[in-house]
């Protein structure tokens, strides 16, 4: 007889279903080109469901979702988790209330990350859609979306994210020439943050083009 799983398989099936449905829609918008991007959902206090590395994110099935512990180690599987697993699990470790982390590579996110890498952040102000980050209370707020240097060294990248989180609350960041990470308490909130960042970055790029 095999050992019992250390997580609830029904909860995993629920999380995997949510990832599959939502990522299919994000992918249809062209935000996950060439197998890029990764997605996760908290299962419980010690486990998260995350996409297997290298899979076509536009065609995810349950076989493309696996379980890791919050150190990023595979649990009860021989699959290899996303190369960027640490960027997901660091958020689950740090914030018990975070339930979902979404990472995409849209053209808007990638171009914006390159344009604002020098400044180290994108300043977002004056937009109604900023209410997506304030619990819909006010648009009279501003937000700095950090832009981090890209590296394949995940502990280095995760340390930079941690250093930022020590000083400011935030719901996402860009990585230069790479893409966007966004998160939330659950899938709808993480998706709202991701979509708001995408829209606001698109507005900033368009404004820059028009003001040239
Ligand atoms: C295919 S290039 C993109 C990857 O290098 C990486 O940034 C990415 O987002 C997907 O990696 P993955 O290991 O499939 O989760
Ligand atoms: Zn990536």
TrEMBL record:
Reaction equations catalysed: 5-(methylsulfanyl)-D-ribulose 1-phosphate = 5-methylsulfanyl-2,3-dioxopentyl phosphate + H2O
PANTHER family cross-referenced by the UniProt entry: METHYLTHIORIBULOSE-1-PHOSPHATE DEHYDRATASE (PTHR10640)
UniProt organism field: Lysobacter silvisoli
GO molecular function, one term: zinc ion binding
Name listed for the protein in its UniProt record: Methylthioribulose-1-phosphate dehydratase
Cofactor comment text: Binds 1 zinc ion per subunit.
EC primary class: lyase
Annotated GO CC locations: cytoplasm
Family indicated by similarity: Belongs to the aldolase class II family. MtnB subfamily.
Residue intervals of the Class II aldolase/adducin N-terminal domain: 17-205
Gene this chain is encoded by: mtnB
Cofactor names: Zn(2+)
Gene Ontology annotations of biological process type: L-methionine salvage from methylthioadenosine; monosaccharide metabolic process
SUPFAM superfamilies cross-referenced by the UniProt entry: AraD/HMP-PK domain-like (SSF53639)
């Amino acid at each position: 007889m095999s050992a019992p799983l250390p997580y609830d398989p029904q909860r995993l099936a629920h999380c995997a279903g949510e990832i599959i449905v939502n990522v299919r829609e994000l992918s249809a918008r062209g935000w996950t080109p060439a197998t890029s991007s990764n997605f996760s959902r908290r299962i419980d206090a010690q486990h998260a469901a995350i996409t297997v590395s290298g899979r076509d994110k536009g065609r995810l099935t349950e076989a493309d979702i696996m379980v890791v512990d919050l150190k990023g180690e595979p649990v009860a599987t021989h699959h290899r988790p996303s190369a960027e697993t640490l960027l997901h699990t660091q958020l689950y470790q740090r914030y018990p209330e975070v339930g979902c982390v979404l990472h995409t590579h849209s053209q808007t996110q990638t171009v914006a990350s390159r344009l604002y890498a020098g400044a180290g952040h994108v300043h977002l102000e004056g937009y109604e859609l900023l209410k997506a980050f304030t619990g819909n209370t006010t648009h009279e707020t501003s937000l700095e979306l950090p832009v981090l240097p890209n590296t394949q060294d995940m502990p280095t990248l995760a340390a930079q994210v941690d250093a930022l989180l020590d000083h400011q609350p935030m719901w996402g960041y860009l990585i230069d020439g790479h893409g966007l990470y966004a998160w939330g308490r659950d899938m709808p909130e993480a998706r709202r943050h991701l979509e708001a960042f995408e829209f606001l970055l698109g507005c900033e790029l368009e404004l820059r083009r028009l003001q040239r």
